[in-house]
UniProtKB/TrEMBL annotation:
Keywords: Magnesium, Metal-binding, Transferase
Domain Poly(A) RNA polymerase mitochondrial-like central palm: 138-296
Molecular function as annotated in GO: metal ion binding; poly(A) RNA polymerase activity
Cofactor section: Mn(2+); Mg(2+)
Residue stretches making up the RL domain: 11-79
Keyword tRNA processing (UniProt): no
Gene Ontology BP term (one): RNA 3'-end processing
Protein name: PAPD1 protein
CDD domains tied to this protein: NT_PAP_TUTase
Organism name: Rhipidura dahli
UniProt keyword Metal-binding present: yes
InterPro entries registered for this protein in UniProt: MTPAP-like_central, NT_sf, PAP_assoc, RL
Domain annotation PAP-associated: ranges: 391-426
Gene: Mtpap
Length: 526
């Protein structure tokens, strides 16, 4: 029942379905700057009940309007005009994006009340640091950071609307298709301002897959056949990319990147203000999103720690929005999960434990990879661990500052360090595709920088005299860690690097000895 669902934590699939359905009843309106909220809502209500709405700033003022009934949109569309083609000719695609203007602005300007605008990006780090200094513990500092950075209800609605608007294009060709967000938009770890990863899904056509049961005939569609799934993906994305480029209102800078490992179309969706990446259904990525969703829902400390570590890494240049040899946010998130699995008692279960709790409907084998784990959060026993975030933050830096990266890899299935299967500086097992390292891109200097920063941060937290720093109005706790470790600390950090560097040389020598020994053995074996 609905009542039962609302009292417990919803499953990932329930949340997705609900949000996609909500997005279908939603329109986006560009408003004049002197808009009268009451009059706008009064007008819109003539087409049906407005269930929720909010205003936000994006090259002027926009309003997201959610109707109770999908039919209200058709009624509104019937009343909307086509822009006059005085200097521009228009592509007559009728979407759910509208522009409202006032017929006679002067008379309506009288009774304006200031609008509440929903923020769609987080505050700058320097403003965050000031807020953090006013808190009374590192724990509350971390929750402040989480509140400032996490996606708001409004921002999530906007993300699902962006997907829904792209879906309207896809449906022109594939009437059964859906467009769904994955990754940080849905896994509870997204921060305001992040891109929207979305994929085109044809699997809702699953109901056609059950073969004709009755009668003497097998019937199936005649469909174009191509030599590989990859080629089909590239063709579909190429056409939909062209379509967005040529006809999509507010779709700009469309780039087709069809030869990547995972072909995609990048574009900027101006009406919602998002950078979007569109690919074709990636079931394993969805499973990763759901796994993180589960971890994020189990205990409030999980998200607070992840957001804190990612913000810390960004400040110190350990992560970067451009692809390269630095650690990605996804890798960092997995490192935090691993650390929380290793606490005594553990704060979150291992993937193998979640798999043991899975029932029939949770079984997912995708391309030979077992992606099964429990989806009902009620089946997972809450942790007995009561450590505060103050403790966990210091312990995280301590743990990874002294982790044996030369020998060990990070395995979330087992929740324990496993010997590295190959020599990448940082080896984090892909939770589902067991032969992949999700941090293969990270090189030795970047890993060493991470270790040095972790050691420095652990040291700062240990030696700190909080009361004195609060009296002196100096940044303390988390605030002190979000200030780049400047000139004064650079010698100390060099010393921290020294230890690591010599370890690296030692490990090189060790591996040379090993290689030598094994090649000698091979020679003997011959």
């Amino acid at each position: 029942t609905d009542a039962e669902v609302s009292t417990r934590k919803k499953t990932f699939a329930e949340v997705q379905t609900e949000r996609l359905e909500q997005a279908e009843r939603t329109v986006l309106i560009k408003c004049p700057s002197k808009i009268n909220e009451k009059k706008l809502l009064q007008y819109l209500s003539s087409h049906g009940n407005v269930k929720s709405h909010f205003f936000f700033e994006n090259r002027g003022i926009s309003a997201l309007i959610e109707f109770s009934e999908k039919s209200s949109i058709a009624s509104l569309q019937d009343a909307v005009g086509i822009p006059g083609a005085s200097e521009h000719h228009v592509v007559p695609f009728k979407s759910r994006l509208f522009t409202f203007t006032l017929k006679n602005p002067v008379s309506q300007r009288m009774e304006e009340t200031p609008l509440h605008l929903s923020p769609q990006c987080h505050i700058p780090v320097k403003d965050l640091i000031q807020k953090l200094c006013l808190a009374d513990s590192i724990s509350s500092q971390m929750y402040i950071l989480l509140n400032e950075y996490q996606l708001t209800e409004e921002n999530i609605k906007l993300r699902f609307l962006a997907c829904s608007l792209v879906r309207d294009f896809a449906r022109a060709y594939f009437p059964d298709s859906t467009v769904k967000p994955f990754g940080s938009s849905v896994n509870t770890f997204g921060k305001l301002g992040s891109d929207v990863d979305m994929f085109l899904d044809f699997h809702d056509t699953g109901k056609h897959a059950t073969k004709m049961k009755k009668g003497p005939f097998e019937m199936e569609y005649q469909m174009k056949r191509l030599p590989s799934e990859r080629l089909a993906t590239q063709r579909i994305l190429s056409v939909i990319g062209d379509c967005l480029d040529n006809f999509g209102p507010g779709c700009a800078n469309v780039q087709k990147i069809l030869h990547a490992r995972c072909p995609l179309v990048k574009f900027s969706h101006q009406p919602t203000g998002f950078q979007c990446d569109l690919s074709v259904s990636n079931s394993i990525a969805t499973r990763s999103s759901e796994l993180l969703y589960i971890y994020g829902c189990l205990d409030s400390r999980v998200r607070a720690l992840v957001f804190t570590i990612r913000c810390w890494a960004r400040v110190h240049g350990l992560t970067n929005s451009a692809p390269g040899t630095w650690i990605t946010n996804f890798s960092l998130t997995m490192m935090v999960m691993f650390f929380l699995q290793k606490r005594l008692p553990p704060i979150i279960p291992t993937l193998d434990q979640l798999k043991e709790l899975a029932d029939e409907k949770d079984k997912h084998i995708i391309g030979g990879c077992d992606c099964s784990f429990v989806s009902d959060l009620r089946k997972i026993k809450p942790t007995k661990n009561t450590e505060t975030l103050d403790v966990l933050l210091g312990e995280f830096f301590e743990y990874f500052g002294n982790f044996d990266f030369r020998k060990n890899s990070i395995n979330l299935r087992k929740g324990k360090e496993v010997n590295k299967p190959e020599s990448s500086p940082l080896y984090i097992w892909n939770p589902f595709e067991q032969d992949l390292n999700i941090s293969k891109n990270v090189n030795q200097p970047q890993l060493e920088k991470f270790i040095a920063m972790a050691r420095e941060s652990a040291w700062i937290l240990q030696k700190e005299d909080k009361t004195q720093q609060m009296i002196d109005k100096e940044p303390w706790g988390l605030a002190a860690l979000l200030i780049p470790f400047g000139k004064s600390n650079s010698n100390r950090i060099k010393n921290r690097m020294k230890g690591i560097g010599s370890e690296t040389i030692k490990s090189l020598l060790d591996s040379l000895k090993l290689n030598n020994a094994s090649s000698q053995q091979k020679a003997v074996g011959k």
